[in-house]
Amino acid sequence: MIKKKKTSIVQIVWNLPFFLLPFLLPLTGAESGPKQEIPFRADKLSDRVLFIKSGQSAVMSNVTAVATSQGLVVIDAHYKPECGHKIRQIVEKTFGRKDFVYLIYTHAGVDHMGGASVFPEALLIGHDNCPMRIDALREQLQSVDIREAMKPRLQSIQDQIDAGPASPEARIKLQEAMLYWSELTELMATGLEHIKPAITFDDSLTLHLGDVRVKLRYCTPGYSESDILIHVPEEKLLVVGDIFNKDRIPLISEKTDIRRWIDVFKPFVEGEEDVDYIVGAHDELMTLPELNVQLDYLEDLWEGVTDARREGLTLEQAKAEFSFEKKFPQLSHLGKRWVSWPHDLHERNIEKIWEAAELSGPYLGQKPPGMTPELFAPGILPTKDNEALYGFFNNATLCLFDRTPVDLEEWTPAVYRMELKAGKWTPPNASPFLGKHWYHYYKTAPEGEQVYFAWRGSIGEKTSSTDVNIWRVRMASEGWTEPNKLPPPVNSMDMDTYPKVTADGTLYFFSNREGGFGGHDIYRSPSTKGKHMTVENLGKPINTENDELDPFIAPDESYLIFCSKTLEGFGGFDLYVSFHKSNGTWTDPVNMGERDQYVCL
Ligand SMILES: [Zn+2]
After folding, report:
1. How far is the CA of 110 from the centre of ligand 1 (A)?
2. DSSP H/E element including 351
3. CA of residue 93 to ligand 1 center, whole Å
């Protein structure tokens, strides 16, 4: 919980003379007048922390200064050198010292970097993405006529002033927006250089400055791609830049990592880290409940819109379903629009989440697997129903899985297919046939795409037969063919299951048919133009008088991994590997180690 401020607030109002640029006159007219000034107000939050608010609305940016035993740290530098000078003067006067050691950018925003040249002795720090953003801005400025490009924005502000703002506050906001944007436009047109940070970091960076630590942490692409939060634990100060602001909803990007966003703020909202002061890049200080409400908004909107897209809603339907008024009445005090930006920010957020929810990239856009088990593709494959993933095929551009509704009595999943086409994944497509565990997909000429699977009883019949057989379906141009039970000798009167297929179509499976070495044995059946005419028992040393199960065969048949409890193992079923010799026989199986369990490969 946020605590009441303990220190008395020293308020110093500084006035910055504003030199009106000639080109502003026709736009601002009598509204701004020739002597418009930006007021600066300095609030001493504690002996070591100074909060500097400029302007009378949320348009102008904030600056925070921390006086440490090893020097002065300034966070953000306003939009122009004149403001930087004013800030420098305020900080020097407040603390009675001039030892600036660090200047930190909360992000590479034009309204927070323009005065950086005023602190040449301070080391400039920002996120790794700051230099890239500054370069991009510079390139943009070289390719467009900025005065021309900004005309519609300035005109829109002027139109709002002319229309007569609803309140004196709204008028002040518009006037300050006009002042800020027109002046910034002129500065950029005449070559204002934004200085790049000398020190950048990727995830986090802590400055140990004697009596205090200044901890920097990257958020995630949202408002910009370089947003960091700055935490001074000794002062219970949290500077959140433009990530959150008191008066407007936070902005999401299609690149936002919502989990990270929530994670980096978790210690503060859950009270693990005490916070007394939350400083946004604009407007007055925020309270912790205010920040909480905005975080909840982010999480709810993200999950809701992502689910809506995965469930097949259109963007327009998602916008209606997650309308600001209907779903987020607790946020009605927050601005959905900026004075200088006509977009509906909430709808823009929905569009960005919509974009992010479109799956792209191999492997369903997921991180390749590591050594620690993790839930795979959360929000995509796992639902409240039961899923089993068969795997990725065709260079991870085809994904097959099955899904059984939880309320279904019988385990009768439908097989789903998702494909990566032109960089995007198609929505899951259900097969017309009901599946059963142990699928194997493969693609080979001339048969094309096929799925082998094992099925107890007959397709379409609810028998409880123990006779498990191997079936096959093909993918034809008009969709999946009817499932076909493979004729003998592949299927026998006993259990024939766990089909796996090599690159040339050779089928491996296990069976407890008569004529084996005992228990279940592993069998092999070569393909002749897609037909399996013969079946051979793999023989010793693979098969023994006990059970050999679950063959996993390499696509080129060079090795076989299987389960057995016959051989000297660690107990129960162990995994073994055996290599195919050039004469067609197999090497003695080698136990794959103590860590395996009974595993379905
Ligand atoms: Zn800003």
Report:
1. 7
2. helix 345-357
3. 25
